[in-house]
Design brief:
Blueprint (H helix, E strand, L loop, with lengths): L2 E6 L5 H12 L3 E2 L1 H11 L9 H5 L2 H12 L3 H24 L4 E4 L3 H4 L6 E7 L2 H12 L3 H23 L11 E4 L5 H11 L13 E2 L1
Parallel strand pairs: 1-3, 1-4, 2-3, 4-5, 5-6
Length: 212
């Protein structure tokens, strides 16, 4: 059975679809918190996951870190050391998770496990306006708030993946499946992901990149 990694744009209901896939496949769901716990098994000094992506993405964060290093800040040196270690630490934790079938809901997992023989890497995407409307409904906020949240998450995720593994999360060619969440109902998306993983009873879909 496969290991699925899911990198979902905000507004595509990625967390819900990942949970439904895990339930349908009868495998564990590993999100950021679960992966953080695995990383701490590898390295007890691994920091809490909350806020980690925001700390590592963007030019302004790098400028602030460079300034702190110039004045010899111990915290800055510790942060720089973590930045150097984090990619391999992430690979170690994700490789440990992928020793058995599971669904991994994390934006950079596809890059860390790019050579995993049984991995099905899924990118859930959709047009911006559709994602904004979906975010509005799910979070009961106005359009301005929804647009800000969606665009902020897009920027943060792009910067996070780029800083870790030097790849573009928006390059659908890096994924086994690129699914437009605006074109299919949720149950059909789960069926497609199951089929890609070779679940008995579902149509076999080759794990070479397929976009829909």
């Amino acid at each position: 059975m496969a290991v699925w990694t899911i990198a979902a744009q905000e507004g595509t209901s990625g967390a819900r679809l990942a949970a439904e896939l895990a339930t349908a496949a009868d495998v564990p769901l590993l999100d950021r918190e679960a992966l953080g716990a695995l990383a701490r098994e590898v390295d007890p000094a691994f920091p809490k996951v909350e806020g980690l992506e925001s700390r590592f993405g963007g030019r302004l964060n790098m400028m602030a870190l460079s300034t702190a290093m110039t004045v010899g800040s111990p915290d800055a040196l510790s942060e720089l050391d973590l930045r150097r270690r984090l990619p391999e630490l992430g690979r170690a934790a994700l490789t440990k998770a992928a020793c058995s079938p599971c669904v991994i809901y994390a934006p950079a997992a596809f890059a860390a496990l790019s050579d995993h023989h049984a991995a099905v890497h899924v990118r859930l995407h959709a047009p911006l306006e559709w994602r904004i409307a979906t975010y509005q409904r799910e979070h009961v906020v106005d359009r301005r708030c929804a647009e800000k949240a969606v665009k902020h998450d897009d920027h943060r995720t792009h910067a996070w993946v780029k800083s870790l593994y030097h790849v573009d999360v928006d390059d659908t060619g890096l994924f086994s499946l690129a699914l437009d969440a605006s074109r299919f109902p949720a149950d059909r998306i789960v069926e497609i992901m199951l089929a890609a993983g070779g679940i008995p009873g579902f149509e076999q879909i080759p794990t070479g990149r397929r976009e829909a």
